[in-house]
Design goal:
heterodimer; A: 479 residues; alpha+beta; eight-stranded mixed sheet; 24 strands; 40% strand; globular; B: 448 residues; seven-stranded mixed sheet; six-stranded mixed sheet; 10 helices
């Protein structure tokens, strides 16, 4: 691939200040079983190249799904014309320094290759999961799915960049729906599609798989007769599989510098955070430490370089509650004058890179699970996201979970159904009163973080321990 | 895309189908779906260009069926026969190897019938180099942000039973926001197949008038229940929730539907609420993943009763229902909500005191099985007193059941409808949109 791409750049008949090609080849499989019957078996392959051309501070792009030399040459011409047509209207005079020369590679760690099991063996496993989930006649639906992705990318540029990255990832999902008359409850393994990791087929069978599968089925049935979550203000304890969503929506997105610069205002929205807040804003309580960390082995959005070639390193975004830096690429950093991270990423070859959060983690402090619950006189413990909504400035949010327990006098007591909570972002993070330790730190991910115009869904990872928030408004379901 | 390039793609697609028919074994069946586009995407911020480019994309989805088993392969479609056929033939062989390993699928539906269609809607779009100056010169003094997306979109279908469909359309959408200095915004969409300069000028002029209203000091409202007028764009947002676990027959059967209570006739919506699928505008293909053609119209909710769900052939087979040409996910593709009796001039007088909501944002089920939806107001939402707009509002979170706002609390729908175009571009440019009126609702619940 290197020689073809370098040969292509050398052959382009355009006069540009900088040219880059990002070629991507991606093969993904999806296998989905419902009620122990196959629903989908599929493999998709996509390949193509994104060409960027810089002319007089103006960047234009063209993407093609043909890697033939003639197609790349035609795309270069198109990108050049795009840059020229926009040159008098460009929002920022881009420079080659925002596309630095870099050479290197990154590969996901893995133990077993993605084809270590046949499609039939994977279906057998998913069928068995469905059968095991059906612990009771009240289970009216069971689902199980597994998806794998092998993504290779090559980035070359006229100033000598050569970056190769190979990402292997797996996502698994299973869950059960229980029904008793008009009451319907769903339970899944940490929330829909939350188990997404980099690695090989070893991830398909996680530790205690069958115990967990039975537990999911039993909890779905248990929820049918559970009390509604009370409407009150109380201590809210969030499991790591809900903290994932909390961090994503109320820390990740508001810290994206392209949102702060206004790029996303027509679609995903802006942010309540301003450029002047970096280095100053008390984002949350002093227990809050959030890192951008692309180096965690196996976390879903680990990588060595972003899609413009910037070297990815671990950085604190929030340290002891104070906002340190934003989620902004080299382009955004140049435009905003704010420190950022290597986070220019694109969902595939057919979309331009934009600011993305990658892995965003809440760092552990102290307190095992028993200590945390034991210290609470009254509260609600919630697991596994099922509903999410936050405003365009990432300020007022309402999230819901699948499963909850009442906390009374330091103990988990009654199961609660339809648990929801709402707050504003600053109020919520300032109410953080306890952060668990490494024993309860868990990481999850999602392939569906949506953003950008044109729209892009991308993969992100989030790790967190169990956390306690004081005096939060919680409530249940119903009309 | 030039007409000759379009023609070459169609020839190449047809050749692919014919070649697969030749290679097909007697006991095999297949379907082939094509999605292709050449799109200009120009993104704006502060009336400047943020990103601009062109994407040429296309893919084939080949499904092979044999002995009650099936599997799918998706691969690029470039229009270069040698490349495309090599990918297709490799996929066919891979599928053959895989099928024998897979479990039996009792609800597999084989392609049948002899439907064919061919529809080409050509347009008069802006040339690539004209997009930036044409869009921006008019708004250069404004805080304009958004995206222009335009070009040709192709959807094709062919199968081993001889069905064949070809749908190609030239279209554009300009999805934009104009911001005031205080951070309030007016949202607009301008879409079609022919760029109409005078219509664009009129749109921007109208938006400028709304911006003046937004310059007033913002009113912060306490949580509570307010009489609310939802403009058509906001109604379209609420309507889209019905494609997410509502009108699908499979969702009803599997315990996933918000309309299960309506289906069981335990609840009823307002007799003023009527919803149908209406393909007669011709903006989206009528064929589905099996080449079946939906009826030009299908009533879904009539006078508040659920009269039809969307039933795909697979769901029909599993639950012994009658299929109605729905797509695989049983989502609304051409929804239309019928108009009511509220004339434009009476909107504010009828609202009297309450909220005028132009748009909504980030909707989700807060309790799907009771039809409860949460989300935010966004863009040009106003506090109204005595039939007069008083001030823009600080955005509010709502949490309310569709059984209330389309049920007992629905006051009326407007006599006019607006077409709200689909502007989504995940994976590829989406087509179509919703035809909806505005609506007036009592006691809508705002929670934060």
């Amino acid at each position: 691939m290197w020689s073809e791409l370098k040969k292509a750049i050398a052959s382009f008949d355009i006069t540009a200040d900088w040219i880059g090609i990002r070629a991507v080849k991606e093969t993904s499989t999806t296998r989905f079983v419902r009620d122990a019957l196959p629903q989908l078996n599929g493999k998709s392959f996509t390949a193509g190249a994104m060409l960027e051309v810089l002319v007089n501070g103006s960047l234009g792009y063209a993407a093609t799904n043909s890697l033939e030399l003639s197609s790349l040459q035609a795309a270069a011409q198109t990108a050049y014309k795009q840059a020229l047509a926009a040159s008098e209207w460009w929002i920022h005079p881009f420079r080659e320094s925002e596309r630095p020369k870099v050479v290197g590679e990154y590969k996901s760690p893995f133990l077993e290759p993605l084809d270590a099991l046949s499609p039939g063996e994977i279906n057998d496993l998913l069928i068995r999961i469905c059968q095991t989930l059906k612990v009771d006649d009240k289970i009216v639906q069971t689902i199980a799915s597994a998806s794998t992705t092998e993504r290779e990318s090559w980035f070359v540029s006229s100033n000598g960049s050569e970056v190769y990255q190979k990402i292997l990832s797996i996502g698994t999902n299973y869950g059960a729906t229980a029904q008793d008359g008009a009451i319907v409850q769903q339970r899944s393994n940490n929330g829909s599609q939350a188990n997404c990791y980099q690695g090989g087929l070893e991830l398909l069978k996680q530790e205690n798989l069958w115990h967990r599968v039975r537990q999911i089925g039993e909890q779905a049935v248990e929820l049918l007769t559970a009390e509604e979550c009370p409407t009150t203000r109380t201590n809210l304890v969030l499991a790591p599989d809900q903290m994932m969503l909390q961090i994503h929506e109320s820390v990740g997105h508001p810290l994206e510098i392209d949102r702060i610069l206004g790029d996303e205002r027509n679609y995903a929205g802006g942010s309540f955070v301003n450029k002047s807040d970096f280095g100053n804003l008390a984002y949350g309580s002093p227990l809050m430490n959030i890192t951008f960390d692309p180096s965690v082995p196996g976390e879903f959005a680990s990588y060595g370089f972003d899609d413009t070639g910037a070297v990815a390193t671990r950085e604190y975004l929030v340290k002891e509650g104070v906002l340190q830096r934003g989620l902004g690429s080299l382009e955004s950093q140049a435009r905003a004058g704010v420190a950022g991270v290597a986070c220019a990423r694109a969902s595939s070859w057919n979309r331009p890179a934009i600011d993305r959060m990658g892995n965003l983690n809440l760092e552990p402090l102290n307190g095992n699970f028993e200590d945390i619950i034991g210290g609470i006189e009254h509260g609600v413990y919630m697991e596994s996201n099922r509903s999410w909504s936050i405003d365009d400035r990432r300020y007022k949010f309402q999230f819901g979970c699948e499963y909850a327990k009442l906390i009374e006098n330091g103990k988990l007591t009654k199961t609660l159904r339809n648990p929801n909570y709402r707050a504003t972002t600053p109020e919520f993070w300032h109410s953080l009163i306890k952060v668990g330790d490494a024993t309860n730190w868990q990481m999850y991910g999602t392939p569906y973080c949506g953003k950008g115009e044109p729209n892009q869904a991308i993969w992100v990872g989030h790790g967190s321990p169990v956390c306690v928030f004081a005096n939060v408004e919680v409530f249940g379901g119903g009309t | 895309m030039k007409i000759e390039e379009l023609s070459a793609l169609e020839v190449s697609f047809n050749r692919l189908i014919e070649s697969l028919l030749i290679k097909k074994a007697e006991d095999e069946q297949f379907t082939v779906r094509l999605s292709s586009e050449i799109s200009q995407f120009t993104r704006f911020n502060h009336a400047k260009v943020r990103q601009t480019g062109c994407v040429a994309d296309g893919w084939i989805e080949l499904t092979l069926m044999k002995e009650q088993r099936n599997s799918v392969r998706q691969f690029p479609f470039t229009g270069n026969w040698e490349v495309d056929w090599q990918l297709a033939y490799t996929a066919l062989q891979e599928l053959r190897d895989e099928l024998i390993l897979l479990p039996i699928d009792p609800y597999l539906v084989l392609p049948s019938g002899n439907n064919t269609s061919r529809e080409i809607n050509s347009g008069n779009l802006l040339a690539a180099e004209a997009v930036v100056p044409t869009v921006l010169e008019l708004v250069a003094e404004l805080d304009f942000t958004g995206i222009y997306a335009g070009g040709v979109v192709i959807k094709g279908y062919g199968d081993s039973s001889g069905q064949k469909h070809w749908f190609a359309t030239d279209s554009f959408t300009l999805d934009y926001s104009l911001f005031s200095t205080s951070g309030q915004a007016v949202k607009g969409t301008f879409a079609g197949s022919d760029w109409d300069e005078s219509a664009y000028i009129a749109k921007i002029s109208e938006a400028k008038k709304q911006l003046e209203l937004l310059a007033r000091p913002v009113k912060e409202l306490p949580r509570g229940q307010y009489k609310t007028y939802f403009a058509p764009a906001a109604v379209a947002d609420l309507l889209l929730m019905l494609s997410w676990g509502s009108v699908s027959e499979a969702d009803i059967q599997q315990g996933n539907s918000s309309l299960a209570a309506l289906w069981r006739k335990e609840k009823q919506l307002s007799t003023a609420f009527n919803l149908k699928e209406n393909f007669q505008r011709g903006l989206v293909p009528r064929f589905n993943e099996l080449g079946e053609i939906a009826a030009p119209e299908l009533s879904v909710i009539e006078k508040g009763y659920l009269v039809n769900t969307l039933v795909n052939s697979r769901t029909a087979k599993e639950y012994q229902k009658i299929a109605n040409g729905a797509n695989g996910s049983e989502t609304l593709r051409a929804p239309e909500v019928s108009p009511g009796n509220l004339v434009f001039e009476q909107i504010l007088p009828s609202l009297d005191t309450g909220l005028y909501v132009s748009n909504l944002h980030y909707l989700n089920w807060s309790d799907r099985h009771t039809g409860r939806i949460t989300g935010m107001t966004r863009y040009a939402c106003f506090w109204v007193e005595n039939g007069e707009i008083i001030a823009p509002i600080e955005n509010l979170r709502f949490d309310e059941s569709l059984y209330r706002f389309w049920g007992e609390n629905l006051v009326d729908l407007t006599t006019f409808q607006e077409f709200i175009p689909e502007v989504g571009t995940y994976e590829s440019r989406q087509l179509g949109g919703s035809l909806v009126p505005g609506m007036l609702v009592e006691d809508f619940t705002y929670t934060l």
